[in-house]
Amino acid sequence: MHWSKSALAALAAAGLAALPAAAQQAPPAPASRFVVVLDAAHGGSDPGGRLGSGQPEKAATLALSVRLRSLLAARGIAVVTTRESDATIDSNRRAAIANYAAAQVCLSLHASDSGSGAHLFVSSLAPVQATRFAAWKTAQAAWVTRSLALAGVLNSALLHGGMNVTLDRTTLPTVDSMTCPAVAVEVAPERGPDGQITAEPDDPAYQARVAGAVAAAVLEFRTEARQP
Ligand SMILES: [Zn+2]
Question: Considering the domain boundaries, does residue 12 fall inside one?
């Protein structure tokens, strides 16, 4: 979703902006709206890496985003995506879309032909207390602790799904500017015991299993977040 002027106008037309001032003050904040941002990395003029299947990374990340979006939407979770097509979108715009959505989970999706299973990355920024005005390039610092918790839940779900998982810290411009629990999820090939590739990152059945585990993790994270 791109939050175009027409989309915002549609929201206004739906009645939010038309409420009288007193009514706007009365209702409590919609406390339990749980929003997930899916960021299919690369796209357009940025193909990302090339996978063993011959496909560019940008196609695999978009396919995974589409799968995850429908799994989450089917469970009643609001999903905002940074792209729905083969579009060129810079990291600032991706983070801006995520931050505008005020999401509880932000997942930046990548694919790689090296390693195996799922590689989880959390920002390498040192955690800081939230401040009212955070520097754009390091805004994630206030969220790193929550991002590590999210990565832990993702790790468990992916392991439960029978996948290899690695967890690292890294510098990613998109994630570093996100003001939400944010994890980069990189899908690597599935490999047999001998190291031979048994499924490429864009293999549909493999992607379905990864998406299922990630969706389960999001639901678990939501449940944990709601406990007092
Ligand atoms: Zn990538």
Answer: no
